[in-house]
Structure prediction request, 348 residues.
Amino acid sequence: MQFKDIAGQRDVINRLTEIIDSGRVSHAQMVLGSTAEGALQLALAYLQYLGCTNRQHYEGGELRADSCGECPHCKKMAQLMHPDLHFVFPTAATSSVSGSFWSGDFMKEFREFLLERNARGTVEEWYSYLGIENKQGMIRESDAAHIVSDLGLKSYEGGWKMMVIWMAEKMNTAAANELLKTLEEPSPGTILMLVCESDERMLSTIRSRVQTIKVKSEGLKANGEADAAFAGLLVEWLRLLFKLKMKELAAQVDKMAALNREQQKQFLTYALGVMRDCFLHGAAGLPVEIGSGDQKFDTMFPTMVTMNNIELIEKALDEAIMAVERNANAKIALMQLSFNMSKALKKR
Ligand SMILES: [Zn+2]
Prediction:
């Protein structure tokens, strides 16, 4: 994960790279904020930047520095395959894993989940990915024991030993007490990265021992705001559907897939509404405004949706919404949608 691939959060990112560049790296860092808004992405990009052997610095841009994305450290981090990168996260017993278990028993699934959702999937989405949505996931003592033992090992690559604790507030008391010992006597060359949506349930003794960075909430929750944010994304996407330049379209699909499931659903529902408006306005010979404020577009799109293709367009979007609800692979579903939409738009 590179910082440039994270939406927004430029101030937070610049603070994180500054911490590393100035050599003030804390062995226990907490990123406090919502995963859907990039908290885990920031943690991963931070660790990638930390070990990057060719850090990039930029003059005058919004982003002042980033990892190179090319060196062996960056490549292993991007695949989440770095041997010194460890994870602990909430789990519960499943049909195939029960008895005495820890996060490591679910690592394959977790890695796939992170790569597929671009590290923006929420904890609820993680539970449904594992098929444990009806259970209370937690980080337990067995996880904490592994934190201690994994960080006690010699570094494979000679650099930092990195431990990411995702949803650290899900630690039970036993795990928290065990973690506290590690925080009090950190073994050299280790970095604990706590990613946490709310620190209220966290022991104050833990809170006082970590350096905290707060993720800005840029919230897509309110409907009006969401529409404004989606308008730009939608217009860019529609333009690319007409051009059908594969490389650009794939990049746009990546952007859409980087939204969390709920936002993807909101985005597709929003798109469906706009398409219906286009159909009605087009038939009446009126323009359609997409978005509002800074993100306002007067468009030529109304005439693109007619009696000949409105049903195909609705079908394509409905199918994509269902695929998102089924937790299908977002990139594949959105690419399929792009092809179906592009075909439909040609039939106007
Ligand atoms: Zn690098």
Q: What stands out?
A: The chain has two domains: 3-214, 223-346. The two ends are 41 Å apart (CA to CA). The chain is about 50% helix and 10% strand.
